[in-house]
## 1
Amino acid sequence: MTRARLPLHVFLLLLFVGFLAPLVWALSGSFKPRGEIFGYPPELVPDPFTLDNYRSLLTEQPFGRWFLMSTVVAVVATVVSVFVCALAGYGFAKFRFAGKRLLFNVMFSSLSIPFAVILVPLFVILVKTGLGSPWFALIVPWVAPAFGIFMMQQYIVQSIPDSVLEAARIDGASEFGIFRTIVLPLLRPALGALGVWQFLQSYNSFLWPLVLVSDSSQYTLPLGLQTLFVSEQRQYDLVLAGAVLAVLPAVALFVLLRKQLLEGLSTGAVKG
Amino acid sequence: MTTTVVGPPGAARARSTPKGEERRPRRTWAPYLFVSPFYLLYVLFMLIPVGVSLWLSLTEWVGLGTPRWVGLRNYRLLATDISFHRALGNTAVFVLVALCLVVPLALLIAQALNTRGLRVRDLWRTAYFVPIVVSPILVALVFGLVFDRQFGLANAVLRALFGSGGVDWLGDPDLARVSIALVMLWRWTGYLTVFFLAGLQNVPRELYEAAALDGAGRLRTFTTVTLPALKPVTAFVVVTSFIGAAQIFEEPYLLTGGGPAESTLSVTMFIYRAAFQRQQFGYAAAAAVVLFVLVFGLSRLFNRLLGIGRAAS
């Protein structure tokens, strides 16, 4: 095994550099004046170093509003969806009921329905019924992902013993009471994992907001940044600064909860 | 190795409940109430839209007024629409990239990361996962810069290594596809690595020891121990990657706009363009139905071939 160590580390290191280089380059570029971003050879440490990109992004563009829009939508979507998924996951993991198999398969097969299929009709339905407001339409259709339910079901089956639930029933607890006071607290790690996953899904989503949101005062971060990107003169300096700021909450969340996320994600696939 | 497999309420139950309790059915509405929010949302935002899509695909509609019934005309037009054929072909290429490049590379990296005694495994693991945290728009703009013909990082690296750059990454039809493939590789490999790594760490050590005792070499150990043990994970990864790649949108939309000469136009982009840029809602719906049939059908087929859900019985 020792023989294999050196090439192994070289392989991993090369990939590591390859994976991070574009991000590091972008980060460093966000601190360079516009003319220097494309300097050759590319310089890692910005010289001259400037905060102008950030300053003009924050003062000349409605960055704060985009940020608020994205964050609020993502937080609400995350809280609701984690709850819906935990409910359904628990229902599937711990009960026997008529039609369970069919219902589970229906839920599971919805994983194979491409989003593009419902894109057009969903847009038409929501706009025609007057439910096309971003506050509703950016959130509600996405709060019940089958993947989340499946993840919860797997986690509950593996980690919550029936005896605990039986004991609570004998003590006369209501079914929802059991869910709220026993199951939810025990689910905390899985809820964290699903929460991060769901937050990233919502916070980073692009196609649906692109279709849905036409009023620029309700743009989410990706939409707002896109306007800088596709404008006549690509404002690379602002875009890079925006990119760095936009990714910060996602990275922070990921760093805080990465163990849970990585393990939670694999629960479904590995045991499954 | 646990035997529960994707989609197994039956198997899951058998594992979690002692046999004796199985015979005592509790008549209660509780489980239905627990799963009902999902099904309510599912019907409203999945089932009904799919139905509407089917119906719209049989009409001609510009988004205003009443849709006009045209029967199968949209499908007949799609059959001869060169752009749609290109979109299907390009999407097939992207799917192949995902399945034949991204998945194997992820497995390879996971193997490397799983080497016994590897230091700071968590750091490596995190580094590879980071791209998934970055939103598609950011990925696109960063790679838009990386692939810039004159000043991009990609050409700068080529110039430093070989003394010549100036490759038109996004302007040449073939290279544009290569560029999209590179972005896919960058964005998805680490994510899939996580699944494989978790799978590898679940393989019982005794199996490797037994293989070593039998004098199996590295390749043989891989094919007789690792691969079979990884089957459930692989099945999951293959099916998810397939479904993901089949609906690729952001990368080509933001990086190349589907061009040059529609060489990176994907099916989802085709649908988006038809509906929201050309107001051909019926036509877009028909293309969506074709995509639905292909993705749903093929992922069922993958499921069957790879044995997802089979251990449920």
Note: Chain B has 14 helices and two strands.
## 2
Amino acid sequence: MKRIFVLFLIAVLSLVSFAVKLTFWTAPNAFQEEFWKTVVAQWNKMRPDIQIEVQTIPAAGSSEEAILSAIAAGNAPDFSENIFSGFAAQLAEIGAIYPLDNFGTDFQRLVEARKMKNIMETWKIKGKYYVFPIYSNPMIFWWRGDILKSLGYNEPPRTYGEIYELSKKFADGKKKFTMQVISGRNWWDRWFDFITYYYAATGGKPYIDVEKRKVNFGDETGKAVVQFIYTMFQNKWTAVELGTNPFYNGTILAKITGPWEVNWAKETFPKVVPNIWFSAPPVPDNYPKDKPIYTFADTKGLVIYSTCKDKRAAFEFISWVFSNVQNDVLWIEKTQMPPAREDLTTNPAFAKFMNDKFFKAYASFVPYAVPPALTDKTIDIQQSMTTNLIEPLMYLKGKPEDILNKAVKEINKLLF
Amino acid sequence: MSSKFGKKERLFGYSIVLPYLAYTAIFWGYPFVWMVVLAFTKWNYFSKPKFIGLQNFLRILTDSTVLRIALNTLNFLAYLIPMVLTASLLFALALTKVRFGKTFIMLSFLVANVSSGVAYSLLFSNLFSINGPINRLLDDLFGITIPWFSNPQLAVFSICLIITWKFIGYYGLILYASLLSIPQSLYEAAELDGATKSQIFWKITLPLLNPSLITVTVLAVMLTFGIFTEPYLITGGGPMQRTITFLIYMYDTAFKRVDPSYATTVAIVTALVSYLLVMLIRKFFEKEVSFV
């Protein structure tokens, strides 16, 4: 008995010492981290031969900067999540990530098991699949229903004209503003303002023609969008700086956000949360009433880096996590974010979440949520958008149409 | 010619300097050579560097962002040099009048200099935010709200204010040491001649402080070319690109645009420009000072 125990101990020890050890970076978000720690703990217990170490993407201006710095320093993890399609295209361009197609039928089986065949198509980069999509967050507007009610509204305004009317009743240009029109000055903020408005106003038309490498938003609808942003700033119905938590303290009536804010809001502002109403992004006054309103989809996925010590082992872990629908259930419980699955509204495993008003609201927008343009120039384009489009509009530097034309010209130069 | 040291002594000497030589070679020599190589190549971290001659240098000449940053740097210099010189000088002069707790005061100001840039940037960002405590106070007292970081020109001033706060202690100490070295006899002689306090300051103190003032100015000029943390964390280079600096641009180019070759070229050009500027300052403003 003693001998068997010793042999068993030696076997376990040798398995552990010869185990593949992979580093996995997760998004710097406590709820996502919690999910990954839970599933990785289960995996590590089950597979002593492939041990995964979970680390949060190091603090930096953005996850992209942290990952690129790590690649430059030769400290890239084996695989990581929180990768948006444009960044994946950039990483694929420099050969930093490994195509998942290389896993052949195993990869196809996983795609089928997770019901994401069509979703995968929107992530194709140069004919290959480099990213495994994890979630797809439609961006929707949250409104202060309690304040709207006191102003005589039973539902949030839908069009630019309706927002102007509301602004005249509520905004004073000093301490009260209608909504957060511009999300910030980081490059990624353009997803949550101009790009979202453009998707909404055009019925989901791409803002960049990736094939022809030119800007689409210099059209009439683009003009309507910039006019809206300009009008809001010109009349002081919105402001450059709105302070800390302006939505929750009643400085603004509306803001655009993703489901990642739900759990935090419930914990931090429990009195405000029950009064939140949802709406699609605002649209021009002539937008057809019967047509659905599109929005931006904040889509993020998982990649395996070319420098990964054992790519097959990393893929085995990924397959194990995402072929089990219960892990997607756990994902929603922890993060409130809709997994990138096509059976979200039909699979009984997710039925219980439809009782949650937040999840229901976000899930209802999934079919109308459009991901960002798949270009390796995303960061350059959106930084240029900030400098040449958003900031001149915010600071009223010129006529909206001129500002738009200049921005289109500058971005076309980048794309050419 | 034979050395006056034996083999053992020479080896001992080498062993003493070896760690420093190794450190210099690894952390200064190698990166420097690599930087020069990169400036003449195109590289994206993964591919092999491709020689492209002077293309990166020519690109700088047509890069509108570089021009914007050059103007920003002049703007920063125009604010920062007078602000930091005046504040440090006032601090140094005040120190000479303090009788008790001088060490404590000096240490209090030096704490700012050794504080984490990230920590104080976030602190100031909150203090000066639109609904932060400073604006709340201003609103209560005078009914005004100042957009410290969202007005393009004010943002430069606000960032210079933070940097000045950080360096008052350090530069003030340099000036204070210099003030102490001015012989009292000069002041006594001036007083006997009936010079006013203002005359003493302008005709004696300030001219004799020239070497230290030049040192502080040179340090502040070099500091201006190295501004990164404050605008990166507080304004992100905005508004309207007014606070974007060479370091922010280098960082963005290297780590957002995946173009380390161009980033190093910008770094080389920035270093040369700052060196030239420092040389010019020394040539035109540095004066020999004699106390006799």
Note: Residues 30-46 of chain A form the longest helix (17 residues).
